[in-house]
Amino acid sequence: MRKKQCIAMLLAGGQGSRLTALTKNMAKPAVSFGGKYRMIDFSLSNCANSHIDTVGVLTQYKPFKLNAYIQNGRFWDLNDREGGVFILPPYATESGGSWYNGTADAIYRNLDFLDMYDSEYVLILSGDHLYKMNYKKMLDAHIANDADATISVMQVPWEDVKRFGTLEVDDTDRITKFVEKDPKSKSNLASMGIYIFTTKLLKKALIEDSKNKDSEHDFGKNIIPKMIEDGRKLYCYRFDGFWRDVGTIKSYYETSMDLLNDESEIDLFKSDEFKIMSNSIIYAPGYIGEEASVDNCIIANACQVLGSAENSILSNGVIIEKNAKVSNSILLPGAKVEAGASVQKAIIGENAIIKTKCKLGSNKKDAEISVLGNDCVYQGGDL
Amino acid sequence: MREFAVGLISSNYATDELGLLVKERNIATIPYAGRYRLVDFPLSNMVNSGLRTIGVITPYTYRSLIDHIGAGRNWFLDRSNGGLFILPGTIFGVSNTKARFLLRDINRNSIFMKRTPAPYVVITATSTIYNYDYNELIESHRNSGADITILTHTAYEDDENLYHAIINNERVASFQSGVKKGEEAFTDCFVINTNTLFDIINTYAAVDYLDLFEAIQNDFNRYYIRNHHFNGYCQSFFTTKQYFENSMNLLDIEVYRELFRNDRPIMTKIHGTIPTKYESGCKVTNSLVQEGSNISGVIDNSVIFRNVTVKPGAKIKNCIIMQSCVIEENTVLENAIIDRNNTIAKGSTIKGSKTSPIILEKKAEYKR
User: Fold this and answer.
1) Per the CB < 8 Å rule, is B265 touching A276?
2) Is the dihedral of CA B133, B134, B138, B140 positive or negative?
3) Mutating which of A38, A272, A288 best tests the B interface, going by the most B Cβ atoms within 10 A?
4) What is the pTM of this model?
5) CATH code, B96
6) Domain containing B282: what range?
7) Does residue B281 sit in the same domain as residue B254?
8) In this structure, is residue B267 part of a structural domain?
9) Model ipTM?
10) pLDDT tier at B279, thresholds 50, 70, 90
11) Same structural domain for residues B236 and B327?
12) Number of CB atoms found within 10 A of residue A284's CB
C-alpha cells in the first residue's frame, strides 16, 4: 500500500448534552443542521475536499444513527480503495477494554489504526463543528514550519476568551503558552480543536500521557500543554473563515437562523468548488401546496408545505398541513405540524409531531426557544 | 446467489413528437419532476422490488444515459454479484423507432441473461412511469403458470402510442396499435419465463428486426400470455403535450405522494445541491421545487428543477423550468417548458397555451 501523507481522526463520540432533547437518541455529530445536513458532513466534506482519503471516526455515545448515516463514506467520496471511512468504537484487547476516557485516550486506544496506515502526519478533528476549511493548506504550513504540532486558531472577541482554549504566540506564530478557558488570558487566539501532529511525536506523547494517572487524557488540557512545556515546536495556523461549535440550544438556533440572512458571514454553502456533501439520496423535490405561503425560508427536499412558513428552516421530509402556521422555527427532518397547529420560535426534533390545532412557542421578543425532542408528540400544555 | 428474476430495461427507441426535449437526449433521460430522468422510475422500481441484476439496453444516443446511470451506484447496483449491465442497443433501433423491445437488442445481449440464470425476466421500456412493486406482477405470473404476463392499466385517455391489449378468456388475444380511453393499455412492461424468452429469440431469429410482440403476433396461441391489471397511477411520455400535462398532474398532492412514497423511493443521480432558499416577498403556490434554487418572484402551478434563480418581479405560471435557468426581473412566463441553462432576459414575456406550450431548447453549458 502506498504510504499516506496524512490521515484524519475525527472525534465523534460526544453526547453534546447541552443540546438536550436534540441528542436524546444520537450523538452530537449526527444532529441535523441547515435543512439537509448533519454536523459531521462538514468535517467529512472538508477531509474529502482536502484530499484526505482516510478518516477514522471515533464513536462512543449512541452511535447507530451516525453509523447508519455515514455508511461506507461513499456520499463524501470516502470509499476509497486505499482508505475510506472507518468507524472506530472502543474495543477490547488481551489486556481488557474500557470506554474512551478523554479525547487523547480515544486516539491512544487506536494507535494500531495509526500504525496500520503509518502516515507521516495525523489530523485530529471534531465531528460537530460547522466550518469549511482546506486542511491541505494547514498541512502545508505544518510542513513549512517543520512543526511537531500545528493548532488551528481564530481570533475571538475578548469577552468570549473564557469559553475557549487560548494560545499565546511569538512573532513567528510559534506557540509559547496554552490556557484552557481562562477569562484572564493574554491572548484572544482561540483553538478550534483542529490539530495536525507529526505522527511519530504524537504516538510518543500519547503513550507518555497514558501512563500519567493525574492526566485527564485531553488534548487541550494535557497533551498540548505538555508538549509546549517539553519545548516542542508547536505553531498556530490562523483561520479567518466562519467556524462555530454550536454547543447550546441558543447557539444552535442563532447559527441556524443566520442561514436565512443573505448578509450573514456564514460561507458554508456559498462555493461550488468546496462543496459540503451529505447523505440525502432518496428525497423528492419539495411540494408547495395551493393554499400555502412561504416567506424567507430554507426548504429542503421532500417537504410538503400546505400551510404557511415564515423565517424558518424546513429540513428534509417536513410536513406542514393545511392552516398550520410555522414562524421563526427550525423543523428537523421528518417533523410534522398538523392542520391548524402553530409553531413559533421553536426547534422541532426529528419525526416529532405537533398535533392538530396545538400551539407551541411564542414569537414574543424575550420568549425562550421552545424545543420539542426527537420523536416526541406535542398535544398541548407545557413541554 | 441465485436470482429470482433479472431486470431488463429497454430504451432503444425514439419518437419525434418529443421534439426539442430529446434533441440531445433520449426518452430514458428526459428530465422530469424536478430532479429525475424517466429511467429512474423503472430502475428504482426494480431495485425496490429486490432485483439486483439489471441490464439497460442503450439507445442510439446513449451519452446522456451513461452519464446519468454510470456504474449504478445511486441505485445500489455497484455490486460484486449482479449489478448494473450496460447493454449496447443496435443502431437498427433508429429506423424502427417505435419498437420498444427489439428482438435483435435482446438477442445480441442475451449472454447477460445466460450468465445470471433466473427463472424470470422483468422487461420494461422507459416511457411509462409509475411506482410499483414488481413482486406483485411476478407473483401473479408464477401463480397462473403463464409464459408471459403483461402489465396493463385502464387508459385515462386516447393514446395512439400505447398498445391496446385485447383480453379474451383471461388471455391476451392480440395487441392493437393505439388505445382508446377506458381500454386496457399495455404499460410496456412484462414478465417472461427465461426459457420462453430464449425460445422466442431462437424461433424468430430470422425476423429479429421486429419488436418481440410484433414477431409473435400471429402465434399468440403458441404462448400463454396473460395480463395483470395495475391499479396505481401511471404516466406515459410520447409527446411534448403529454410531458407538459404529466408535469402539471404531479402538482396534485395525491399523485406526488403516490409516485414519491417513502417506502419505495425513486432514486436518481445525486448532485449535492443546497436546500432551496425562498426569499422574503416571494410567492410560491402549487409547485414542485427541487433543491439548489433561489426564489424571489411569483411561481404558481410549476415544476422547478435544481439551481434555478427566479428574480424579484418574475411571474411564472404553468411552467417547467429546468436546471440552471435564470429568470430575470419582471419576466412573465406562462405555459412554457424552459430547458436547462436558459436565461430569460429582463422584462420579456413568453406565453404558450395549455395545449401547446412553448419550448426553449437546452443551451450550451459553457460559454467559450
Assistant:
1) no
2) positive
3) A288
4) 0.93
5) 3.90.550.10
6) 277-360
7) no
8) no
9) 0.92
10) very high
11) no
12) 26
